Amino acid sequence: MAEEIKENEEQEEKHSVWHGFMDKYPILFQQRNLPMNRTCMCWGIECPEGWYDTVKDVCDKIEAVNNTVGKTHHFEIQAVQVKEKFGTLRFYLHSYPQENATDEEMETARLFDEICEDIVVRAEYLTESVCQVCGRPIFEGNKVVSRGWIGYYCPECAEKKGVIPWEDIPKEPCPPPEEDSENSQDEASAQ
Known about the structure:
Radius of gyration: 23 Å
Number of strands: 6
Shape: elongated
Largest sheet: 3 strands, mixed
Number of domains: 2
Distance between the termini: 57 Å
Mean pLDDT: 81
Order of helices and strands: HEHEEHEEHEH
Number of helices: 5
């Protein structure tokens, strides 16, 4: 049974849009083969397939920085983790200057690190307006909850998945827990 589950997971991975994706960006995804006690990239890209174009755009831009300015100024920007959290993209980066980098090169690396961070932040906001299943543009008000998970879906994909629109979720606070009468009597007698 366990072998069957593992085989199914491997088959799913082979058919995923993310299969082989990181190989296209060797500098950015250098950490993909490191153990889990050193990086979160060992789990790959943990994003919905509908974000493929957004993630690819981020990777293209950052890899271009690595292949141009990074090489001439002795630094590399690497992905540490790429995932979905609270329904939007999270793309964590770290800049790695080479040992022989000068102060000027270190400053250049810091500036390009900020530029890459800006690219990532824009992409994170963009995922709020892209269906995470099919990748089509969506409009405000398509935030939904599916089995406790927040996501963004176009109306067609939301209907197929049977998700609940965010605005339809009850927002009242939970009532306080009722006190156990036996415990409250014990506490009263102890005082």
